[in-house]
Amino acid sequence: MQRFEPMVAVDVETKQEALRLFDKLSSDTDHQPIVKIGMELYYAFGPGIVREAKGRGLTVFLDLKLYDIPNTVERTMRVLGALGASFVTTHAAGGTEMMKAAKRGLLAGAAAAGRRQPKLLAVTKLTSIDEQILHDEQKVAGTLIEAVQNAAHLTEAAGLDGVICSAQEVEAIRQVTGPDFLCVTPGIRLNLDNKDDQKRVVTPAQARELGSNAIVVGRPITLAKDPMKAYNEIRQDFMGEQD
Ligand SMILES: O=C(O)c1cc(=O)[nH]c(=O)n1[C@@H]1O[C@H](COP(=O)(O)O)[C@@H](O)[C@H]1O
């Protein structure tokens, strides 16, 4: 099974903070750290922030979670495909037609810019959602696991590379998807008592045991007194015997 380096969600306010983290992570020359650039950084600093990360040799996960009508998503993905990110996101809730359009746009944009084909991942159910929200607010009848499983099945059928889910659902997803389908899992905490706004959380070691291909970790690293120490501890816990 393919296991990626931990994906560090660089959810910070200033460019200076982002660049400081990029510098620290890119100093780890033994591994290939992955930085996740999300809406906060991208909306503030635009494509230049992707170039800053790539210029330091970092692998970029561009997490903008596109969710709109197929035509809009396809055209926007074409723009994003040119940026050279290795992973890009959309929402499975947009439906298979939208996901197929997303993939078409992304691959066309990457090809036109002479970039390698990025992997496209779809969010199943945000890890800040639990069964109560699913039933009481979203009026979804089945279990959360069933909703995530269905989203993963549709994502694979649309030709995407994988999903974003909680590691808690990976085993169920593996029952309905092929062996190469990726499960990328945020909601990671070393201390499960400190969930912040997350609902479905596991430790890095649990994510490994449950079969995650990659973990996404933000605040446990960005808010740590020593972010590199936290990164290395989480990395060791997730990569386990692979190191
Ligand atoms: O797409 C994502 O990366 C994502 C999906 C999801 O369901 N839950 C989720 O937390 N994320 C992202 O993962 C990161 C988690 O951050 P922390 O909770 O600080 O570790 C954030 O950047 C979220 O945007």
TrEMBL record:
Check the record and name the PROSITE patterns matching this protein.
Answer: OMPDECASE
Domain Orotidine 5'-phosphate decarboxylase positions: 5-234
Q: Which residues form the active site?
A: 63 (for ompdecase activity), 65 (for ompdecase activity), 65 (proton donor), 68 (for ompdecase activity)
Named in its record, the pathway it takes part in is: Pyrimidine metabolism; UMP biosynthesis via de novo pathway; UMP from orotate: step 2/2
Q: Which residues bind substrate?
A: 11, 36, 63-72, 127, 189, 198, 218-219
Reaction(s) catalyzed by this protein? orotidine 5'-phosphate + H(+) = UMP + CO2
Q: Cellular component terms, GO, for this chain's entry?
A: cytosol
One MF term in GO for this entry? orotidine-5'-phosphate decarboxylase activity
- Would you kindly state one Gene Ontology biological process term found in this protein's UniProt entry? 'de novo' UMP biosynthetic process
Keywords from the named record: Decarboxylase, Lyase, Pyrimidine biosynthesis
EC number assigned by the record? 4.1.1.23
Supply the CDD domains for this chain.
OMP_decarboxylase_like
Write out the similarity annotation.
Answer: Belongs to the OMP decarboxylase family. Type 1 subfamily.
Q: Which HAMAP family match?
A: OMPdecase_type1_B (MF_01200_B)
Relate the protein's function as given in its record.
Answer: Catalyzes the decarboxylation of orotidine 5'-monophosphate (OMP) to uridine 5'-monophosphate (UMP).
Summary of subunit composition and partner proteins: Homodimer.
Protein's name according to its UniProt entry: Orotidine 5'-phosphate decarboxylase
What is the organism of origin for this protein? Answer: Limosilactobacillus fermentum NB-22
Gene of this entry = pyrF
